[in-house]
Amino acid sequence: MNKNTDIRWLAVGAFVGLTAAAFGILRQSSAVTDLPETAVASVNDVFIGRDRFNGALARLRTDDPGDAEKAAILARLVEEELMVQRGVELGMTESDTEVRNAILNSLVASVTAEADAAAPTDDELNEYLANNAERFSYTASLSVQAWETDDEPVAQQFITALRMTGSPPTIDGIRSLPDLPTALLPADELRTYLGPAITAAAAEMPNGSSAVFARRGRWLVVQVIDKERGYVTDLNSVRNRVLLDYRRTLADEMLAQYIDGLRQRADVTVAIP
């Protein structure tokens, strides 16, 4: 059940008929005096926690909820627990994909909540950046070959032959891009020849690969010859990226440990396909 569904289920904006139903349910319930202080109700030996009850009350957005509101909220929580338990009895956790995914997502969120709120120091982030430099690397320099034509079919014919043979074919109507050096060029300098968009795309292409691009009414065939990586050393320039990656890695580690604990307690038998 997602948050929106939970809010709709627990929202008590209209109390017509609801309050009476709430008191009816509570009257039918056993008056239990030995509940733990942390619980407000018990449904088939499953406790409904006081924190959960208080959270539902808070969503009423009223500073002083009365007995009727409290009774309605408690009744809703009891009804919800009854429905969940019935769903389990019917095997919905096994057969309903949406239910299983909701349970899985909720459990993962609870396990990784601490990681999502982690606030590492600058020293910890700098150490993480140094130990994971490759994750924050970028294409600093590129060596490319490029050819230009006014005719897209010619560009497609050229790149097909280029990919088949690995060498630029001789085809009428297409020529090498004038003055383009074949040596490694800083990305900023290569932009003056290819433009920012094509340079950015080339930076993501593997060595030896090629592609056709449209630029200023013409067609460019670009082949990447070589690339040189650069590495970020200034934390402030990538702080948000490093923090997000730090939290993601921490969450992965926490989840892996949790699953390992479950696996150690479980009896798992598999048949290899």
Fold and architecture overview:
A hairpin with a 2-residue loop joins strand 6 and strand 7. With 273 residues, this protein is of the alpha+beta class. The N terminus is likely disordered. Helix 2 crosses helix 4, helix 6 packs across helix 11 and helix 9 packs across helix 10. The chain is 52% helix and 17% strand. Among the domains are: 88 residues, no CATH class; 98 residues, Roll (Chitinase A, domain 3), CATH 3.10.50. Strands 3, 4, 5, 6 and 7 form a 5-stranded antiparallel β-sheet that branches. Strands 1-2 form a two-stranded antiparallel sheet.
Quick tags:
single chain, 273 residues, alpha+beta, Chitinase A, domain 3, 5-stranded antiparallel beta sheet, two-stranded antiparallel sheet, elongated
